[in-house]
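Provenance

Sequences were taken from public entries as deposited. Structures were produced by running a predictor on each sequence independently, with no templates supplied. The record for Asparaginase from Nonomuraea phyllanthi is shown for reference.
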Amino acid sequence: MTGSDRRIRVVALGGTIAMAPRNELGGVAPALDADELVAAVPDVPKLGRIETDAFAQVPGAHLRLVDLVRLSRRIEEAFKDGVDGVVVTQGTDTIEESGMALDLLLNTDRPVVVTGAMRHPTQSGADGPANLRNAILVAASEKARGLGVLVTMNDEIHAARFVRKAHASRPSAFTSASAGALGWTAEDRVRIPLRPVGRVFVDLPDVEELAAVALASVALGDDGRLLRLLPDLGYQGVVVAGFGVGHVPARMIEDLTAVAYQVPVVLASRTGAGETFSDTYGFPGSERDLLARGVIPAGALAPPQARVLLSLALSAGWPAARIAEAFDVLSG
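Predicted structure for Asparaginase:
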């Protein structure tokens, strides 16, 4: 089967790729449906048998984790119906989290590709049609099978677990700083020379609400007063974005320890690249000290992805040991 013979379903969530002209508030907002998105892509019949699904029309900033659970069920139904690959279009604000959620929720080898646009259709150099075209190419490619959920932006192909939005507005905003992009597209060819190892699947039961997980970023001189409130506010887990390889100020240690006795606490790095260490630094508040207090290392996962994994894992009833193993597996 060639790429042009494959059934590819484009599922629209909204976002810049689907923005309409300026509205009564003086800005652009999601409005175009999935058919209009595909119509803007040149030579669509050459890419595959394209189907569309207008799942939602919301900005990426408005998406919730439960929306991604619903979307994963919709994608599973599409695969049962014989669809060969799925492209999800959405606002770029939350592609890091949504791609990670779908990667954990979809137990499939078929390609699922998330994309969006950094420049909306009313701007010069709008990148939406090109990104969507490349996403369809990747979703129709045999090379994309078995890689988990992918993100394609700016001609690059990223693993959802590692991708990060590293700039507020440039078309080149998305990177995989720790691992590098898996591949690229050129002249309608899909090139994927790198393949991530390790997959984690969260078999989520039917639940009305997902576990609430807070994300707390550490700052110079932080004293932990916000951290200590989180369990009482109903949070069932916490991701701490620490300094460097996983450090916190001395004044936070007591509160962080108390919280870790109440709910799972995951330690990530706020730096944007690299991973948390486990056995190098030994001062109070260092990674060795915090792990000895029961904190779970996030490894190479960025704080936003770590929060998604922790929320889904807690919702599925996973114990701390299994959660820690998942972070290690996904780090490669």
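The two ends are 31 Å apart (CA to CA).
The longest strand covers residues 7-12.
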